[in-house]
Automatic annotation (TrEMBL):
Described function: Secreted tripeptidyl-peptidase which degrades proteins at acidic pHs and is involved in virulence.
Cofactor binding, per record: Binds 1 Ca(2+) ion per subunit.
Catalytic activity entry: Release of an N-terminal tripeptide from a polypeptide
Official protein name in the record: tripeptidyl-peptidase II
Length: 595
């Protein structure tokens, strides 16, 4: 629900406080745009362009809130499984009322209160770029990404009144340049019809229902179900359990491709479909009605998410990030903020969400990353498991950092947020090994959460190659947490059978396994898992096949760099890949007398 700010503050006496807002002071400032962005010399920003400026008021009680999220997610804690409602979350985190009053005064002093609304802890100004420039005493400029050619309007520095500095943590879009990209690479498009795709090469190649020869090279839903041992489990469509796949950047999931995929590769789910929810002007155009769209990432997510979690009801969230006008440059690409605030405003959020997008951590401003991670913590508090692909460049194919002279592994955000579950990639089946592109590493922004202490210490002391520890932050949140297959997934794109690879395939695969485990829990009268990691790092680890072969790639500037998959947890495959039967036993307590 939207409330105009003016209405929200009826009756609040503010006039006498106007003077107290204080002088404008710099709030955020960058020396230069982060590489690969450069200022466009001949660029000109149209100040009449509509522009959505989001002002986030600092939450109160953040540390206590984080503790609460861990408590409700930690097995054996008295609060385990007692997830919070929307109003309970808001009550704990509510920003100081004084912050709202001051921001109101500030907007009124520029005659902008009528264009503003309150959305939870956000104040959203729907005005023009000119309005934002006036409010922030700055000028937006055009910047170009020299790798992708994308042009965006941002500023290198802006100011707000001194008295507001204590109450606001971020204002966006301002100094954040990066936008997340899909973690997917296309291996083969328009792949010719593949006769051997379902039938086995010979009966002796089938072990435990797994076609070891076919699944060793390309992946279908049957490969995953046999490999991860859930061929015979059937979840419920009617117990309230749900799974959702998140889409950004005009990636559109196709209904007719899904229908072909299911008929070909998942006949038991033939005829099922997904529901679409559109956020912030997002669309889900169908190629058949509107020419060529980007569908590779969205189709991969929806085809595997739906087929593997079948019959769990499935939603595709398409979040837009551009103004309605056909502008030649981006002004408003803040997909996580839009997506997460939308979710948090729902009374019921799907229990499992998979996100196959990410970005190099250092290109995301630190305060921004913390704000987004706190939103993920709120989603976690609500009893939702969020799975994020760990990235497709190993420890970072190009060592780089905000300091151009410094070589550093490049961790991926939001995998580095300690309130999400990060999913790495494997390939082959006999044995299943780490794939070199599988992203992993250590955050420079988020300290290591307690739930990781034991296993990550053990990795660092017993397995990490001391020659390379200087390239990463051993005190940071380590990822991925777990992994799943990620190479040569058959899928249907514009009617053709193709294959795609990436941790983009691994995230919906693992998410679907957890959706089915949730279905089993709910049908057994247990709450859904919610935030999975505290459970994973205590009980769940044993329900995985440890991956001990293969190595993640390192950066090209440092020979031999990168992390290897070793016994126990490692920053390439986490604890390994799921064994549904064992996870199911651990989850519903059938193993309780073993511990
Ligand atoms: C699976 O692929 C790997 C790597 O190519 C190979 O070493 C192994 O022998 C293959 N296994 C089977 C059963 O084809
Ligand atoms: C899938 O459903 C369609 C129409 O509902 C039907 O024509 C087709 O034969 C079915 N395919 C399979 C493999 O069940
Ligand atoms: C096709 O795309 C155009 C431009 O993006 C849009 O204006 C139009 O509404 C779309 N048509 C359909 C049927 O989705
Ligand atoms: C990799 O880093 C070097 C310098 O550190 C830079 O010149 C180059 O453009 C980067 N390449 C990519 C693909 O990021
Ligand atoms: C390493 O991580 C810690 C904890 O998150 C952080 O405080 C520190 O700034 C990081 N160091 C570097 C060099 O980024
Ligand atoms: C890295 O290895 C390549 C060949 O594999 C070699 O040419 C290069 O000199 C090595 N660089 C360093 C810094 O050792």
């Amino acid at each position: 629900m939207k409330l105009t700010l003016a209405a929200f503050f009826i009756g609040t006496a503010v006039a006498d406080q106007l003077a107290s807002l204080g002088k404008y002071q710099v709030f955020e400032k960058l020396a230069v745009a982060p590489a690969p962005w450069i200022a466009k010399k001949d660029g000109h920003v149209d100040t009449d362009l509509s522009f959505k400026l989001r002002i986030h008021l600092k939450n109160q009680n953040i540390a206590a809130f984080h503790q609460k999220v861990f408590d409700v997610s930690t097995p054996n804690h008295v609060l385990y499984g007692r997830h919070l409602s929307r109003s309970e979350v808001n009550k704990i985190l509510a920003p100081s009322p004084k912050g709202f009053v001051l921001v109101q005064e500030w907007l009124e002093s520029h005659n902008l209160a009528q264009k503003s609304s309150v959305q939870n802890d956000w104040i959203v100004l729907e005005g023009t770029i000119g309005d934002a420039e006036k409010l922030l005493q700055t000028q937006y400029e055009l910047f170009e990404n020299t790798e992708t050619g994308k042009v965006t309007a941002r500023t290198l520095a802006y100011n707000i009144p001194a008295s507001l500095h204590d109450y606001i943590d971020i204002i966006a879009p301002t100094t954040k340049f990066s936008t997340p990209s899909p973690h997917m690479s296309t291996i083969v498009k328009d792949y010719p019809a593949f006769d051997t795709k379902i039938s086995a090469s010979s009966p002796s190649d089938i072990h435990d229902g797994l076609d070891v020869v076919a699944c060793n090279t390309t992946i279908t839903p049957n490969c995953i179900k046999a490999l991860y041992k859930f061929k015979h489990f059937r979840g419920s469509r009617r117990n309230g359990n749900e799974i959702a796949l998140a889409g950004f950047l005009e990636e559109y999931a196709q209904h007719d491709d899904l229908a072909t995929f299911l008929a070909t590769y998942a006949p038991e789910a033939n005829g099922s479909d997904f529901k679409t929810e559109l956020i912030n002007g997002g669309k889900n155009l169908q190629v058949s009605v509107n020419g060529t769209q980007n569908t590779g990432e969205a189709n991969l997510d929806i085809q595997y998410g739906l087929a593997l979690a079948y019959p769990t009801p499935t939603t595709y969230y398409s979040t837009g990030g551009r103004p309605p006008e056909n502008t030649p440059y981006e002004v408003d690409n803040e997909p996580y903020l839009e997506f997460l605030t939308y979710l948090l405003a729902l009374d019921k959020i799907p229990q499992v969400i998979s996100i196959s997008y990410g970005d190099t951590e250092w290109t995301v401003p630190e305060k921004y990353a913390h704000t987004v991670c706190n939103l993920f913590a709120q989603v976690a508090a609500r009893g939702v498991s969020v799975f994020i692909s760990s990235g497709d460049s190993g420890s970072g194919s190009n060592c780089s950092s905000i300091d151009p002279g410094k070589l550093q592994y490049t961790p991926d955000f939001p995998s580095t947020c300690p309130f999400v579950t990060s999913v790495g990639a494997t390939f082959h089946v006999v044995p299943e090994v780490a794939v070199p592109f599988s992203g992993g590493g250590f955050s420079n922004y988020f300290p290591r959460p307690e739930y990781q202490d034991g296993v990550v210490d053990e990795y660092l002391s017993e397995h990490a190659d001391p020659a390379f520890t200087k390239y990463y932050n051993t005190t940071g949140r380590a990822y991925p947490d777990i992994s799943a297959q990620g190479v040569r997934f058959h899928l249907i794109v514009t009617g053709q059978d193709g294959q795609e690879s990436g941790t983009s395939a691994s995230a919906p695969t693992y998410a679907a396994v957890v959706a089915l485990l949730n279905s089993d829990r709910i049908s057994n009268g247990l709450p859904p898992f919610g935030f999975l990691n505290p459970w994973l790092y205590s009980r769940g680890a044993d329900g995985h096949t440890d991956i001990v072969g293969g190595k993640g790639s390192g950066c090209r500037q440092v020979n031999g760099s990168g992390f290897a998959a070793v016994s126990g947890w490692d920053p390439v495959t986490g604890f390994g890949t799921p064994n549904f039967k064992e996870l199911q036993d651990i989850s519903t307590g059938d193993d309780s007398d073993e511990s």
